[in-house]
Write a structure and sequence with these properties.
This protein is of the alpha/beta class and 369 residues long. The chain has 13 helices and 14 strands. It has an eight-stranded mixed β-sheet. A six-stranded mixed β-sheet has the order 10-9-11-14-13-12. A hairpin with a 2-residue loop joins strand 3 and strand 4. The structure holds L-homoserine. L-homoserine binds next to loops.
């Protein structure tokens, strides 16, 4: 299969290429690596071969591919995709960006959760496949067993989203902020006689200082948090919050929309998004049945016992970062009644939240999954 890959150098693209190499996806594939800025230059090395870069704006070269995978971003998609289709290109377009997610003729891809929706799309001749928003994908991976059984009446998620969701520069900025906080507090830390209040005053002064790097977040994230992600939409919601309902229901292919609502918050984690979830079940399912449904839904969900030691050790960005596991824990019934469930989940936003659904879609098209 001839496959063009655009945006392979960026963060999501790099994780995608890493995963494709690790899974042997390049075997039997004829890849072309495209670049928006360095056509003719050296591309990545795959299986001992160094690839030359093609021009990501060369419509003929793009149209020569049976499938394109892009992690280049929404503006590139909106520029190139309509022109390719207008020129009659019939290939598969697999896109990490949000640009085409809500189009009628696109499918949101999260195959462990919605393989039937993907297959229906393929049977209907659809050619545009979009990776969903990372928070939504990770939530649905985690709650797969409850959604698949039709047990969820509504769900509300409070997120703790990592810096990586903003992009590579945001990750660097978070660490630069942390470094500055540490540098400024070094003398106090070294002095056993200094008090926690002195230390706090130093940290607050650093966070409020002009010199704190903040070009990307605009405000301090280290030692703080940001309760706003993406642009405003209606009703006081952010777009990130809006996506849960819009994309969540599109992924599930729900006949009747399940209400998703919540609040999205950026925290100082690097690449794992966590979510505190409240949901209402349609019936009073026993907890052991809920555990079984959650853990049995797909091979990546890891149900963590609701006790202190495993929750601290296994249910955190530090534990999950770089892994395909989606941890779900703190599962318990709430005081509001036996149909109300509380739980916490953590997943790597660059893997199941971004790259993994894309490479798996290619494998589906190749009949390998
Ligand atoms: N919008 C997400 C975030 C990134 O800002 O964390 C992945 O969709």
């Amino acid at each position: 299969m001839k496959v063009g890959i655009i945006g392979w150098r960026g963060m999501v693209g790099s994780v995608l290429i890493e995963r494709m190499k690790a899974c042997g996806d390049f075997e039997g594939l004829t890849p072309t690596f495209f670049s928006t800025s360095a056509a003719g230059g050296e591309g990545p090395e795959v299986d001992g071969r160094r690839y030359r870069l093609a021009d990501a704006f060369d419509l003929d070269a793009l149209a020569d591919q049976e499938a394109l995978i892009t992690c280049q971003g929404g503006s590139y998609t909106l520029d190139v995709h309509p022109r390719l289709r207008a020129a009659g290109w019939q290939g598969y377009f697999i896109d990490a960006a949000r640009a085409l997610r809500m189009e009628q003729d696109s499918v949101l891809i999260l195959d462990p959760v919605n393989r039937q929706v993907i297959d229906r799309g393929l049977e209907a001749g659809l050619k545009t496949f979009c990776g969903p928003n990372c928070t939504v994908s990770l939530l649905l991976m985690a709650l797969d067993g409850l959604f698949a059984g039709g047990h969820v009446e509504w769900v509300s998620s409070m997120t703790y989203q990592a810096a990586s969701g903003g992009g590579a520069r945001h990750m660097r900025e978070l660490v630069a902020q942390m470094a500055q906080v540490g540098d400024d507090a070094r003398a106090l830390l070294a002095d056993p006689a200094s008090s926690a209040l002195q230390l706090d005053a130093s940290v607050s002064a650093t966070l409020r200082s002009e010199g704190l790097p903040r070009d990307n977040f605009g405000v301090p994230l280290a030692g703080s948090l940001i309760p706003w992600i993406d642009a405003p939409v209606d009703d006081g919601q952010t777009r990130e919050e809006w996506k849960a309902h819009a994309e969540g229901n599109k992924i599930l292919g729900s006949d009747r929309a399940i209400p998703f609502d919540g609040l999205c918050v950026r925290v100082g984690a690097m690449r794992c998004h966590s979510q505190g979830v409240t949901l209402k079940l349609k019936s009073d399912l026993p907890l052991d049945e809920i555990h079984g449904l959650l853990g049995g839904a797909n091979e990546w969900v890891d149900v963590v016992e609701n006790s202190r030691e495993p929750s601290e050790r296994l249910l955190s960005p530090a534990a999950i970062s770089g892994s395909l596991k989606v941890a779900v824990g703190r599962v318990r019934k709430m005081r509001m009644g036996p149909q109300y469930l509380s739980l916490f989940t953590v997943g790597d936003q660059l893997l199941w939240g971004a790259a993994e659904p894309l490479r798996r879609m290619l494998a589906i098209l190749r009949g390998q999954l």
